[in-house]
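Quick check before the chapter quiz. The format below is the same one you will see on the exam, so make sure you can read both the input and the output lines.
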Amino acid sequence: MAQVGEQLGYRYEITKVIDNGAFGQVVQCIDMKDSNQRIVAAKIGKNKKFDIDNANVEIKFLQKLNAGFKDS
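Here is the expected output.
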């Protein structure tokens, strides 16, 4: 489990744990490489094949959803 103060990828610093669930946890982070220190959310999944496969499906879905918003 990730904790407040930890860093993800030498870029994001966890400021708050938003929720924990069966598939992982969602955390609020500050983007330390952004000059405005933008606040972002990150989903940290469990490292099991089933969960990784589900995460990849979710990523594709979110990319399609995001592309639709850019077209608007």
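If your answer matched, good. The first strand starts at residue 7 and ends at 8.
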